[in-house]
Amino acid sequence: MSKYQTAQLRNIVLVGHGAAGKTTLADLMLFKAGVGTRAGSVDDGTSLLDIDEEERQRHFSISSAMIHFEHHHARINAIDTPGYPDFVGQAISALCAAETAVVVINAAAGIEANTRRTFDLAGKAHLARMIVINKLDHDNLDFPGLVEHIQETFGRNCVLMNVPLGLGPKFHGVVSTLKPTADHSDAVIDPATIGSAVMDAIVEADEELMERYLNGDELSAEAVLAGVSKAVAAGTLIPILCTCAKSGAGVPELMDAIADFALSPGELVRHGHRESGEEVDVGSSDEAPLIAQVFKTRIDPFVSKMSFIRVFSGKLTKDSTVRDLRTGKSVKVHQLLDVQGGQVESVDEAHAGDVVAVAKVDDFQVGDTLVNNGDGVLLPPIVFPSPMIGLAVEPKSRADQQKISGALHKIEEEDPTFRVTRDPQTHEMVMRGMSELHLQIVQNRLHARDKVDIVTHQPKVPYRETIMANAEGSYRHKKQSGGSGQFAEVHLRVYPLPHDIDPKEHFIKERYPGLRDYHYDANLNFAFLDCVSGGTVPNQYIPAVEKGVRERMEQGVLAGFPMQDLAVALFFGKDHPVDSNEAAFRTAASMCFRDVARQARPTLLEPMMHLEVTVPGDKLGDVSSDLNTRRGRMEGMDNGPAGAQVVKARAPLAELMTYARTLSSLSGGQGSYLVDFSHYEMVPPNEQQKVVAAAVHMKEEE
Ligand SMILES: Nc1nc2c(ncn2[C@@H]2O[C@H](COP(=O)(O)OP(=O)(O)OP(=O)(O)O)[C@@H](O)[C@H]2O)c(=O)[nH]1
Ligand SMILES: [Mg+2]
Predict the structure, then answer these.
(1) Side by side, which strands form the sheet with 486-496?
(2) 93 near 416, Cβ under 8 Å?
(3) Helix (H) / strand (E) containing 131
(4) Is ligand 1 within 6 A of the CB of residue 75?
(5) Which ligand is closest to the CA of 91, given by its number?
(6) Which residue among 274, 290, 476, 630 is buried most deeply as judged by most CB within 10 Å?
(7) What is the whole-number distance in angstroms between the Cα of residue 609 and the centre of ligand 2?
(8) What is the model's pLDDT at position 85?
(9) Which residue has the higher pLDDT, 80 or 615?
């Protein structure tokens, strides 16, 4: 791949809803670019991208897949992502490696839940976007209606770059709206009526071009082409292209559009932080120090662990040493791989802008930034949705017992939306994923790949605890046993902490008397405040106090759930010149926190979920009333594809543990839903009593 200059690279990511035809398009583009002797097919299990056994059997994508091909002057690196919302994590990480998102829409289904979501995700990541309307060979399409809906939903800057010739079974090609060919008598929309909309979008990104255009000057084809690229980069133009991935109609034009209009790496400026703190733009020069990010892990049956890496700046070369900014460790990169679906080829180097895989580096994790200099630039982390659907896992047999944990962690490495935890109270091993389907696939993979079988059951809801009031108190820990004793006294104040605070503005002396210093932990929304007056707690013991508080927070003070959303101020204490030590302060802090938090109106929090339920229109009533019985709150309603209704609601996770099954029976198997963690919220008092009683009962039994 070293023969490609950065400016020739086009990193694209194919996103959209399930079954839109992304993988089929990718297979066909590969074939048309001269890779293979026939196009791979999702349907007969020969796709070069859907290569896992599970993908082949189910005929849809589960993991993202990388391919590359040449077209005209460009080298195109394409990442195909799964469209089912259960696997959205794959799309999120792939977006970090690309400059252009190609959002594929199924013409027959219209804009679907994950079309909208991935379009927005790409926008938030500042990627350029293109839209492909695929499956134009389907019967009974309302093409103008679909285009109107796209523009209503995604904006008027979405403009047709070409128009279908014939529609449905007669769809056989496309005609450009910028340069219509003479013969386009069967065009579905007259291309000439759209050309001006394309020009408007183009000149909006270029003042000089705008002036010439308004003056009525003749613009050269090159100037217009350059204008399109610029407008795509600026986002004033989101080109729409028309295809049928089955027959190939419109696909050559799509490939042209990708080569011509998708951004090259230098056209999207990303930002990072130097280790010393300064915010910087990340360039795309080979000569600059290395800045690269791991965006995907795949455990390949042959290569074993593969880490997919996007090189943003500098060059990554074989046998070089890089520093992983998460661990601080220097790691030797022995082998670089150019990836083509399931095939790999060794290469010597990867330029700025390129995507490669590295084989067999155990230390790399998704999201890690790799550098090769001091004061390296740290890229922002990749943020994944929290998996909330959990199942407690047990091995089926003694033989499975030994392998289970290793096998689950392997999957955890590959899939950032899958997590395995051991519940410290119940000792249950709990796996969490995005949906029941997601967890089912994990289970199948364990069986097929690692020969591990498990049995599962409903796990506990991950409740949390917090406090509702301020309180203060003290605790003296004193022990005299033989030789040296133990002595520490701490005085703590606790405060409920609101969400979305700016720590710099929030933690001030006016609010927290005597404040000297603070540690803020954004994950727990917890702050430890050092308000010690007159050196009554020696500085060397203050970290031990924080440790003691945190340990107790993990155990909770009400029903044994971890605590969050609070601040703890240490404001006074006493020590003893001989008997005081870190352990004594830790114990005193833990006990003191327990006592004080219990006086601060402790309360239970439960995870609330965003729900987006798509159901046939006539089932809407049943689904809404069922949601009401689940303490759900309706938040909106939308028209979905093909007469379906989309209900937006919020409901507690505790009520959604078996929702997939309920929805399926309520909707005759035609409903589907997206569920996403929203926030933690107070559990209503009557529910709270039940949960606390159950937790106390559990404890007694133990
Ligand atoms: N008739 C027709 N069928 C198509 C077209 N494109 C894809 N298909 C079929 O639609 C089905 C889904 O195609 P995929 O390529 O797997 O869709 P995908 O977007 O990759 O789906 P996910 O992997 O689930 O996100 C397959 O059966 C394809 O053969 C098309 O343009 N016309
Ligand atoms: Mg696919």
Answers:
(1) 471-479, 486-496, 566-574, 526-530, 517-521
(2) yes
(3) strand 128-134
(4) no
(5) 1
(6) 290
(7) 27
(8) 85
(9) 80
Task: Please give the share of the chain, as a percent, with pLDDT higher than 90.
Answer: 79
The bound ligand whose nearest atom lies closest to the alpha carbon of 39 is 1
For residue 600, which amino acid is it? A
Q: Write the CA distances from 339 to 82, 300, 345, 479, integer angstroms.
A: 18, 12, 7, 64
pLDDT band at residue 425 under the 50/70/90 scheme: low
Q: Which of the 8 DSSP states describes residue 140? A: S
Q: Is the CB of 542 under 6 A from ligand 1?
A: no
Ligand 1 pocket: which of 13, 14, 23, 47 to mutate (most atoms within 8 A of CB): 23
86 lines ligand 1 (CB under 6 A): no
Measured from the Cα of 134, ligand 1's closest atom is 31
Residues 633-692: tens digit of each pLDDT = 999 998 876 678 899 999 998 998 878 778 878 887 677 787 778 899 999 999 999 999
Cα–Cα separations (whole angstroms), residue 130 to 231, 262, 427? 12, 8, 48
Centre of ligand 1 to C-alpha 150, Å, is 20
Q: Which ligand is nearest to the CA of 341?
A: 2
What are the residues whose beta carbons fall under 8 Å from the beta carbon of 258, sequence distance 6 or more? 10, 12, 71, 74, 76, 100, 102, 130
Gap from CA of 570 to ligand 1 centroid (Å): 61
Q: Are 101 and 23 in contact (CB under 8 A)?
A: no
Whole-number pLDDT of residue 690: 92
